[in-house]
User: Fold this.
Amino acid sequence: MTTDSPTPETPISSSLETDSGETSNDIEIIDVRATDSETSSSIHDDEVRQKFAELIEAIERRAKAEAGNVSDWRVQAVEKAKETIEQTEQFARERQTQLEESVKSLQDEAFERWTSLTKEAEDFTNRLQKAANEAWKIVMKQEEEAKAADAAAEANSVTTEDDSKAA
Assistant:
């Protein structure tokens, strides 16, 4: 028995040989390719057209699926971009709020320090004024005492002169 598989170059034989070399007519295999070429050609053309149509349909389905994937990807990209923008805006708002709070805190602290500084300056001015007044009083008291002493000394000297003239 031959083990060659049928190919277009080696058509299938119409009868099978047995191991003993005898031909068996029980099964008859007919090569369809060897029949009428016109019928074969039209069957073949129909089959090619059908396979081609199936191929086109498969390509269309694949293209639509890919387009859907691209569309989904585009939608996802847009959604991701929107989400990122929203997060960035939220971050910016938080930072702006923090900056405003920091500026207000610095302004409050500067105002408190200015108030404290002006109060200290006012207190210092008041102390200087009191010290100047006390110094003035002391100076004036000493001058008054000196004038009083001079007046007493003059009065004493006038009385002494009067006593010496009277004596």
Observations:
- Strands lie at 16-17, 23-24.
- Helices lie at 37-166.
- The chain has one helix and two strands.
- Residues 1-35 form one domain.
